[in-house]
Write a structure and sequence with these properties.
The protein has 189 residues and is of the alpha/beta class. It has one domain: Vaccinia Virus protein VP39 (Rossmann fold). It has 7 helices and 5 strands. A 5-stranded mixed beta sheet has the order 1-2-3-5-4, with helices on both faces. A hairpin with a 5-residue loop joins β4 and β5. The mean pLDDT is 91. The structure holds S-adenosylmethionine (SAM). The site of S-adenosylmethionine (SAM) has 14 residues, from α5.
Length: 189
């Protein structure tokens, strides 16, 4: 089956919706804290529920937060609070949300990601992590223009520019992960 815009929107990089649901049901939902599940359920009735960070991307974020023993974190772009609560539940009780940061999560206005990046490089300590959500922009970053849904067109330009800039930025190490709608992880050098 070819990847049409519709299938990409529903499955990310995965080939089928069933495979994505398998991952969620097998590896993600059984380990999701109850409070997060509640937020996800409440958010699902919101007309913009698509904005909530994907639980598979969230699970990966939590793993990274633990791996780097993050205590000081910052989030740019809060919606119903799924990713923010996930962070708060993951970092230790003496964790903080200010000062020189171990970890930053950016999930806001895509046309400003490049500005956020410059500022976060000053705020996140060397060895710290910056994560950018939606770096596939519904799969449209790799689509021919003719297949891109009109509502994706404007921000797509900025996401493509961000991806290009991050790839060329020697101040960070990066990995662009096929989680949720694309999650790019940067480690500040
Ligand atoms: C995709 S949602 C974030 C979802 C969040 N990660 C979650 O799991 O609930 C993006 C949010 O960023 C907010 N936003 C957009 N532009 C912003 C800006 N310039 N500054 C702060 N927040 C912004 C929007 O209002 C929206 O609530």
């Amino acid at each position: 089956m070819g990847l049409t815009p519709t299938t990409v929107e529903k499955t990310g990089l995965l080939q089928t919706k069933q495979l994505y649901e398998y991952i969620l049901k097998t590896s993600v939902y059984p380990r999701e804290p109850e409070l997060l599940k509640e937020i996800r359920d409440l958010s699902s009735t919101h007309p913009r529920s698509f904005m909530v960070t994907s639980p598979d991307a969230g699970q990966f974020m939590a793993l990274i937060l633990k791996l780097i023993n993050a205590k000081k974190t910052i989030e740019i772009g809060v919606f119903t609070g799924y990713s923010l609560l996930l962070t708060a539940l993951t970092i230790p009780d003496d964790g903080k949300n200010h000062e020189s940061f171990d970890f930053a999560f950016v999930d806001a206005d895509k046309n400003n990601y490049i500005n956020y990046h410059e500022n976060l490089l000053k705020l996140v300590k060397p060895g710290g992590i910056i994560m950018y959500d939606n770096t596939f922009w519904g799969g449209t970053v790799a689509m021919d223009d003719e297949f891109v849904p009109p509502y994706r067109l404007e921000m797509r330009v900025h996401v493509i520019e961000l991806n290009r800039n991050l790839a060329a930025d020697n101040r960070v190490e990066i990995s662009q992960l096929p989680l949720g709608d694309g999650l790019t992880m940067c480690r500040r050098l």
